[in-house]
Structure formats: C-alpha cells, structure tokens
Amino acid sequence: MEDSKQIFDEMHGEAGGVRYPYAEYQKWLETEDPARLRRKSTASEAFFRRTGITFNVYGREEAAERLIPFDIIPRVISAREWARLERGIEQRVRAINAFLHDIYHRQEILRAGRIPLDIIANNAAFLPQMIGVSPPGNVYTHIVGTDLVRTGEDEFYVLEDNARTPSGVSYMLENRETMLHMFPELFAEVKVRTVSDYPKNLRRSLGECAPEACEGKPVIAVLTPGIYNSAYFEHSFLADQMGAELVEGHDLRVINGRIAMRTTRGYDPIDVLYRRVDDDFLDPLTFNSQSQLGVAGIMDVYRAGGITIANAPGTGIADDKAIYSYIPEIVEFYTGEKAMLKNVPTWRCAEPESLAYVLDNLTELVVKEVHGSGGYGMLVGPAASKKELAAFRAKLKARPGNYIAQPTLALSTVPILTKKGLAPRHVDLRPFVLVSPRQVNITPGGLTRVALKAGSLVVNSSQGGGTKDTWVLEE
Amino acid sequence: MLGKTAGGLFWMFRYLERSENTARLLDAGFRIALTRSSAAENEWASVVATAGVSRNYLEKYDQYVARNVIDFLLRDRTNPSSVWSVIEAARNNARMVRTALTREVWEATNECYMTLRDLLSHPVSERDLPDVLGSIRQQSALVRGALHGTMLRNDIFDFARLGTFLERADNTARILDVKYYVLLPSASFVGSSLDNVQWESILRSVSAQRAFRWLNPGEVNPMSIAEFLILDRRLPRSLVFCYSKIVDNLGYLEEDYGLRLDCHDKAMPILKRLKDASITTIFDHGLHEFITTFIRDNIDLGAQIEQDYRFSG
What we know:
A: alpha+beta; globular; B: mainly alpha
C-alpha cells in the first residue's frame, strides 16, 4: 500500500544511519538497557493516570476517561530546522490576523478578486455579527496551533491552521515534565529548549490584549464547558498554571457593561476571557439560543470594548478547510511576500473539474469535510474498503462543496518503543503560537502526535493516536 | 474565589469525610455482628439508619443482613451516600475545583479514587471487609495529610474545613440520635453485657474506644459516653470540637473578607449552647430532643453558608 522507499524517517533518515539532530540521543540510547526503557514506559502510564491527565471520550459511559498513550522516544528538531519553521509560522499567523481584520471590515481581498466572494458569503464560519468589530489590539487569533507535517529533509507542509481553540498544549507541557521526571540524566547531556514558560507567556500575551475597560492588572479567566468536556483536563490545567479562574457560563453575568464572575464576595469583572467554548455556544442571545455554556449578552459587552474574548468570535473563517487552499494567496496579499511554509495541494470539490479529478482518483486521496475536525468524517482513500469508497463517492456527489481532497502524503516517521524494540510510526507536529499586539511568540517544539498502528496515517488522539515529547535543540 | 469553587471545596471535603464515617460505622456494626449474632440484625438496621439511608435500603431489600448492608453502604450506586458514590462525587468536585488544589491534594484524591475503584469493583466479602475498610480510612487520611501539608491557610482551606466539620458533626449527632435509647438511664442496668457491647460500638464508630478508656479509666457508663461525644473538647469528633472548628474557620473568613454574614450569627449560638451545657442538664431536658435540635441547626447552618458565600448563584 505504501512505498516504503518514499517515507522519510526523522531519526534514521533515508540512508538508514542516524540523522544529526538525533546523534546525542542515539549515544545515550545505545547505553540504555532495553528492559529498563520498557519499565520506564510502563511507569509513565501510571504517572499520567495519577496526575489525571486524561481526556473524555464522548458516548462512552464506562471508561469515560482515557489516557492518550505516551511514547518515550522523543521527536527531535534541530535549531536550524526550527528557526525556519518559526519564521514560516509567524508569517502565516500574521497574515491570518490581517485577513480576519480585513474580512470583517473593508474586505479588500474580495474587492481585489484574490479569493471568491461566495466562499465567504456562503460560509457558516463567517460571523456577520463580527462585521465592523475591532477586537482589542486587533488581535483575532490569540492562540494558534499550526499543524505541520513533514515528508523529507526540507519538506514541511501546513496541514491545518487551527485558529479557533486549538487544544493539546497541556500534553506538550506534561510530556516534557514526564520525560524530565523519568530521564533527568538525559537532559543533562542533550541541550533541549524549554517549553515550561508557556503558561507564563500565555498569561502575559492575554494580558497584553486587555480591553479598554480594564483598570490595573488584567483579570483573566478560562471559560470551560465543564468537567464532562473532553478537554476539561487541559482547561483546568491552563487556568491553574496561569493563576487564572476557571469559570463556566453559569458563573458569569453581565453587570454594568462588564462580564463579571460570581465570587464568594460578590461579582468581580473579568478583562480577558480565554474561552474554550465554540462560537455557537458563546452567547445565547446572539448565537445558539439553547446554549447553557455561554453568557447571555457577552457579545454586546464585547462590541462595546468591555471584554476581550480569546480567540475572537468568527476566527473560524480563517481555518475553514475551504479557505485553507487560499492561504498562500492570503499570505502574499497581506505581507507582500511568498508564503515560506507550503500548503498541501488541495482540490476544492466545489469546483467541477476538481470534483471530477477527485472522483476519478479517490483511492489515492484523503477527503475531508470542510468543517470537520478530530479526524471524524474523513476518508483515507488508500486505506478505505470498496464499500467505504462507494459511500463516500455518493456523499461527494450529493454535497461537493462540503469537501476538499488532498494527496495522501507520505508523512515522516519517528521511531516508537514497541515490545520488539524501536519501530517507525507516522507523526505530525502542532506548535503553539501566542499572538499579542506586541509580539508573536512560538513555543519551541509543540505537540507531536503519532499514529501507533504500523502504517497508519491517522494521528488523532480520538482515533487511537499517541503523543511524544518534542525537542528543539539549542544552537 | 468563585462561589462555585467554594461550594466545590466544601462538598469535596464533606464527601471525603462521609466515606470515612461510613467505613467506621460498618466497622463497628461488623464487630457486633461477629460477636453477637442475635443482635446482628438490629445492629445493621441502626448502621443503615445512622448513614441516613434507611428508606433507600428498604426499597431494595427486606432484611438487614450483612452481605446486603455491606454492599449497599460500600458500592451501591443507587445509594447516594455509599462510599463509592461519595468518592466519585468527591473526585468530581476535586476536578471542578482543581485550580484551588495543590498538585499533592489533587493527586491524593485521584489516587484515593483509583484505589477504591479497584477495591470496590466487585462485591466485598466479609473476609475482605476489614482490609477494605482500612484502605478507605487510609486513603482519606492521605488526602487530609496532603491538605494540611501543602495548602495555603486561606479561604480555600477554610471552605474545605467547614465541609469536613459540618459533615463530621452531623455524623456524630446521627450516631447519638440512632443509639440514644441505649444511653438513656432507664434502659440501662449496670453489667448487661449487651449494653456494654452497644456502648463499645458507639465508641468504635467514632474511633474513640481507646481514647475513652484512657480518659475514663474503669467507668463505662452511658452518661459519660454521651458526655464524651457531645462535650469533650479534646475528642476530634465531638460536637463541641467540630463547632469550635466551624466557628474558627468562619471567623477567619469574616476577618479575611471583612464581612460578617448571617452564617456567623447562626454558628456562634450553637457553639455557645454546647459550651454552656453539662451532661446532666442535657439528660434532664432530654437527650433525644437535644440531638434532633442540633441536627436541624447543623443542616440549617450548612444551607446558610451555601447562601452567604454564593455557592450556586
């Protein structure tokens, strides 16, 4: 099914030796007793369970809390590789913010004819309520998780921009903690850049986006749907690490033009709300009227400058999969430069020629729902059965505009520890980006997700993927 | 602090306290059942009554037999006060207030949950009961140890302690409420071995049989037991001890927030009544009435705290 010659292994390279970023790690690994490594691997699971780093799986009453499997072989990125990625990500994120501001104001990019009007006009992710609204500091995407994949020594692609509420950063932090706890001696030998500043940077970055109404030190709160949400661990973790309150919709109400939280001493105003609730549930008065998760009236407060909502409502229009294919144009339009990071070639099934091509080549393509996420509703052509292909063909014909297709990329691999020793598995990478009016800050590394099944390309944790600690080496 | 967080802490520690109390009650009941088979059924009935779940129990079972009582109090999900139900509730509250807890307290709570989940995944046989009860007490002691060793002494700590002592006071009062007839002078005559067993059981259910013997060498009588459980300031499960702590913690909150609330005005007279009482006046005015009034006041204070500190809106 896969041509193994084409697959790039980040540790062993194409030639089968050890690539330079892994040289020091390899030296350490050679002195390690494999049995000890396996014991450590088992110990790491107990460590995660005790800490309660779990995620909830919807629709499963029993075993509702699961661990995301953690693999103890790190994914290593050299300083030079990282510097390049960093520049590309920053360029892309700045362009996305400029695009969002434009699309909710003068819409120059549409006037210039660089992207088609109907892709915005007929897009549920475009929020008319945001037209003419300028968020504090003109920052829309305070937190971004840019998904990257690699196919060769110098071949990196952006897979998704995740400009709404990207998750996974708690795993990045806890993976490192776990590695430090289990292999302290390793970090004395290999110089790895720290990731543990993330909560501090997040707090600073959010604080720099405080609204006009803020007096004194910005009060920050994290809005969670509650303890049954699949990412609740992360919500409480981030609030805890930042020293911010963790609030739910029913803790909040509008008082004197501010959003205030109910405390033991009365109601206190919040300046910046890091919400982990989707746009649709944010304000029952403006969006979904059935929502219990948001705050009635928050959009009015927001428009009047009484609160910063991070990320801003309506950012989904920038990470929509239909817009994705236009990001290279978007980068050029707003920065005047060529995009440094490549897009994966994408067929927009809304276009008749593309649809015809996709239908003809379905067995070689990955087809995704325009608004889907988490690996649901997606077809991996080469791995699909005849029945699945036929079913998808019908779906494509019925609603072509709902899909895009991409070639099946030969994602790079990094070894994981199996019972039989090291074995290569496909990976992707989600670096975490913080945006404030003053700076764009990218934590060196990010979350490496790894498909645990041999040959599998699906790395999503909801579909049996695992994670690895990601190392960016110091110069 | 969020009102919801204060409420979550309060209930988290009420539930943990309850799990420990239920384990003690079962321990005491089991002891009687082992040594006095003729008294066993009555004893199990009063254990269930003390846990406050007689109605739920009788909906499910006709008779008080060891196996059913043990299962109902330890594992039954339909019993909101079973050890498993309250441990799950305590952990859910802990997750909700995670940002108010140190890593140590959270991990101890999570560990408690995981350990008991394993222990209580199957029915507990009488043979294994002592070990399981020991584990329950040990696990909640670990959480308490983490709380004392790592938490700041601030409002977070105060709400945790308020939950603990309101629950504990309620528990001790319920033991007295259910067993008061054993302690009445008219019902007792010196030397009845059944009475001795009953008295012993009361002391055992507050883990104070040894302490009582040290403090009252040679004189086991119902009045001194009642005095010990109600009025002894040294016993950490006595009513007066619990209320001293409640008034202390409410006082810290008053000082911290600069706010005197209705709950402060309610707690003080309860403590004063306990401090001013002697065991003879309590018996003269009626032990049962004294205890039922106390239970009512205690519930009332809990509701007032909940309202004053905006636990739920």
